[in-house]
Each structure stands twice: as structure tokens, then as C-alpha cells.
Design goal:
Quinone Oxidoreductase, Chain A, domain 1, 307 residues, alpha/beta, six-stranded mixed β-sheet, Rossmann fold, 24% strand, 10 helices
Length: 307
């Protein structure tokens, strides 16, 4: 099959389409004919080699952590899914390909498009996980950095659904979008503390940083000097500041439960998923470069040829 691979660490130029062997499912796995694959910041971090101590890479490597598609083979012991079922979830072998193996998936609701379905797993799991770790609840105020991004947009909506007031940082061009999610938009950058205090005179109960743009010192100030209830998924300075960096740890069962709930909410219109761009396999490098630049304004999706 023709899949996107990289055979050395580097920039987006190391990604290329190449013939590789088709994967076949082992016990407990399914093979999915991929209809769409989500593009995540983790993809380019793995490609650069930045995550090799935590996510070892064997070359040639196929990128892609999440997918939507149709089950076309099942491994030994699989009883929950059958050939022909439509699913979404996490890829075990790389989703930038016509076929990928998976073992953490749920049924795709009929009303959800392939692109929307592929955009939910990673961003949705991350948003739910961090909101739960922060303990965000009804009546509280959450400061959310990067509210217009894929994770930020989902976190804003899920926090609002819990009854929280969300103050979302974003560029002025994205303020209308952030407001449409139910959050109060504020511009990031110099003067952030004063702008947040004006928008939330009641104070900030928790901070979720999805952007990694250096807002943690301001966040600590807004929390009264404490690092309690501040979590980042993107700022490498977290350790120096005593802030919690969250990079995963949810069980497969929790992933499936959260994914099924998020897919249901998206189908019902209670969780909006904005797909900012779709790319064929041959343009995977461009997709990852767009992701790395940090201004996509939503989720990016790879669509294998022949969809």
C-alpha cells in the first residue's frame, strides 16, 4: 500500500509517500480502511525526534495517532466489531495510510462525517482528561489558553457544559469563534493579566494551557501566586515553574467511554468540531507544517486517496 513515511528525524520535508507492507490484525485488534486521519502536534514532535525518549520510533515510521474508517479485518478474540462497521479511534500502526490497525475504537454515529470523526479522539480525550484533573465544576472560572485550537475549542465547550465560566485567550481574529463556543475571548500577549482580571473580576479558579506560548507566569499571578490547579499540555517551561505538565495516562476503557460520549455530543450538535483543512497523503508535510505553525484555527485532516 502507498503510505506516508519518514525514515529519519527532521522537518516536514522528511515525509514522503512510499510502498509499505499492509498491516494485518493480531489478537484483539481490527484493521481499518482509513477514511480520514487526524493531524496532531504530537505528529510533528515525533517526526522531529523530540519524543523519542517517550515514544521510540522505528524507521520507516508511518505517522498518525487517530482515524476514522471502516473495519475490513478482525483479529482473534474481537467480538465488539465486525467487517463493515464504521469506527473512530486511535491507530496502532500509523493512520496516514489506506489501512491501519487499531484496538481503541468506538462505533461512528451515522450523522458524523469522516473528517469530524477523525478530529475527535485525541483533542477530545485531552480536553476531558485535563478538565477532570483540574476538577472544573459548575460556578467556577476557567482560564483557557489557546481557546481557538483543536483541544482548546473542545475544552471550552465541555467546560461551559459543566457550568463553568471560560475566559479563552486567542488572537483577535479568532475572538468571534471563541465567543461562539460560549467563552469570553481575550487577547494573549502583553497586558494579559489586566485583561483577564477585567473579564473575570471574580478571579480564576483553574488554568488550562493548550498553547505553550509562555503564559504560565501570568497564569500563576492570576491564581494568586500558586501553581495549584494549573495544567499545561504544551509549555516545556512547566517543570521550572512547578506547573503540572499532562501528556496522557488515561486507560483504554476511559478513552473509549469519553470518545463515545464526545462522538454523541458532536452528532447532536452539542460539541462543535471545526475542521480547518483537509490534505491528501502526498501533502502530509504541508499539513504537519501548518500544524506546527500553530495558526490552523481548527483540526487538520489527512484523507487517503480513493476516499
Amino acid at each position: 500500500m502507498r503510505a506516508v513515511v519518514f525514515e529519519e528525524f527532521g522537518g516536514p520535508e522528511v515525509l514522503h509517500v512510499k510502498d509499505v507492507d499492509e498491516p494485518h490484525p493480531g489478537p484483539g485488534q481490527i484493521r481499518v480502511a482509513v477514511r480520514a486521519a487526524g493531524v496532531n502536534p504530537m505528529d510533528y514532535k515525533i517526526r522531529h525526534g523530540w519524543m523519542d525518549a517517550f515514544v521510540p520510533t522505528t524507521f520507516p515510521a508511518v505517522p498518525g495517532l487517530e482515524l476514522s474508517g471502516v473495519v475490513d479485518e478482525t483479529g482473534e478474540g474481537v467480538t465488539d466489531f465486525a467487517v463493515g462497521d464504521e469506527v473512530l479511534g486511535w491507530s496502532a500502526t500509523g493512520a496516514y495510510a489506506p489501512y491501519a490497525l487499531a484496538d481503541v475504537v468506538v462505533a461512528k454515529p451515522a450523522g458524523l462525517s469522516w473528517d469530524e470523526a477523525a478530529a475527535i479522539p485525541v483533542a477530545g480525550e485531552t480536553a476531558l482528561r485535563v478538565l477532570d484533573l483540574l476538577g472544573v465544576r459548575d460556578g467556577e472560572t476557567l482560564l483557557l489558553h489557546g481557546a481557538a485550537g483543536a483541544v482548546g475549542a473542545m475544552a471550552a465547550q465541555l467546560a461551559v457544559a459543566r457550568g463553568a465560566t471560560v475566559i479563552g485567550t486567542a488572537s483577535p481574529a479568532n475572538h468571534e469563534y471563541v465567543a461562539s463556543l460560549g467563552a469570553v475571548p481575550v487577547a494573549y500577549g502583553d497586558g494579559l493579566v489586566d485583561r483577564v482580571r477585567a473579564a473575570a473580576p471574580q478571579g480564576v479558579d483553574a488554568v488550562f494551557d493548550t498553547s505553550g506560548k509562555g503564559a504560565l507566569p501570568d497564569s500563576i499571578e492570576l491564581r494568586g501566586g500558586t501553581t495549584d490547579r494549573i495544567i499545561t499540555i504544551a509549555d516545556p517551561a512547566a517543570g521550572e515553574l512547578g506547573v503540572t505538565f499532562s501528556s496522557g495516562g488515561t486507560t483504554p476503557e476511559a478513552k473509549r467511554a469519553g470518545l463515545a460520549e464526545n462522538a454523541r455530543l458532536a452528532t447532536e450538535g452539542a460539541l462543535r468540531v471545526r475542521v480547518a483543512g483537509t490534505f491528501p497523503l502526498a501533502e502530509a508535510g504541508k499539513a504537519q507544517q501548518t500544524s506546527e505553525e500553530g495558526h490552523a484555527g481548527g483540526k487538520l485532516v489527512i484523507t487517503p486517496e480513493g476516499r
